[in-house]
Amino acid sequence: INSLPDNSMSCVALSFRSRLLSKALPTAAPRVIFRFLTSSTVCLQPKIPSRIKAFGIPLSKVMSAAASETRMGEGVSATPALPGQLFAPSADRNKQHIANVLAEKLPADSPLQLLEVASGTGQHVALLAKTFPKWQFTPSDVLEDHITSIRAYTVAESLGNVAEPLVLDATAHSTWPLRPETFDVVLNINMIHISPFAACQGLVAGAARLLRVGGHLIFYGPFKMHGVISPESNIAFDQSLRSRNEEWGLRDVDDVTAIANPLGLTLVHEVPMPSNNFMLFFRKS
After folding, report:
1. How crowded is residue 127: how many other Cβ atoms within 10 Å of its Cβ?
2. How far apart are CA 147 and CA 49, in angstroms?
3. What pTM, to 2 d.p., does this model score?
4. If you write DSSP's letter for every residue of 34-83 in order, what string do you get?
5. Which residue from 28, 29, 4, 27 is spatially nearest to 16, judged by alpha carbons?
6. Residue-wise over 258-270: b if at least 16 C-beta within 10 A, else e?
């Protein structure tokens, strides 16, 4: 029934489908639920949160899966190298560009401690750990399948400078099991535009607490640059995100700076990146 266009379904068919899904969806994997609820054939409420609520499904789990789906652009797929290892095409494309900028802006030969918040599949930390063998990396994510994938990449690459991945929620930085002023870098890639602004606020506050003086909070992703979104593709992307969830969207660098400055974090670098992205470096004073 779900494969038919909505306008070809009778009221009886739609009612039957709704009753059927109300029983099936609550037991499905969150990522499957998100993919279904964002499909054009779902004839329920126009907004995703309303659709989820209609079936009595925990919103937080599905939106975490939604973040995973959107963060990786084309989505995440399994790769056969090791069980649990995931592959994101967008991460594969941007990881070397990110490594190049880090090599330019940070001392590669110093024993830096780096925390990555929202590590995703683990592709970034795997490349960075090989590129910067003197750095120590602590990856993290909020999704269990990502934690598993990070471990798989660490094993596959025999990375001795990558710690056990942590389960960290950016909106609950006060619960992070980490000591203050123990990191030189906090890195966040493609997260804050596909999560509530509270996640950005929590990330900045957590970084301010964990960074040593002189350390950097580094963002990578698409941004509204001082009130302007460009080019047209980023405008369309921002509109698409907001249509899926009104709490998502490209963040204005000025808004991020406004929450960072009172916490002792100063914007020192705005680095243009391929595909209309930026890397932002905030230094702890």
Report:
1. 18
2. 26
3. 0.76
4. HHHHTSTT--S-SSHHHHHHHTT--HHHHHHHHHHHHHTSS--EE-TTST
5. 4
6. ebbeebebebeee
Of the candidates 207, 198, 171, 192, the one whose C-alpha atom is nearest the C-alpha of residue 251 is 192
Give the H or E element holding residue 92.
helix 89-105
Tokens coding 2: 């779900």
pLDDT, averaged per 10 consecutive residues of the chain (285 residues), comes to 42 49 56 50 41 52 50 55 86 97 98 98 98 98 96 95 97 96 98 97 98 98 97 97 97 98 98 97 98
Residue 72: name the closest of 62, 60, 85, 86 by CA: 86
Q: Could you tell me the CA-to-CA distances from 239 to 40, 169, 235, 246 in Å, in that order? A: 17, 26, 6, 10
User: How many angstroms separate the CA atoms of 74 and 90, rounded?
Assistant: 7
Tokens representing 268 are: 């020192």
Q: Are 168 and 140 in contact (CB under 8 A)?
A: yes
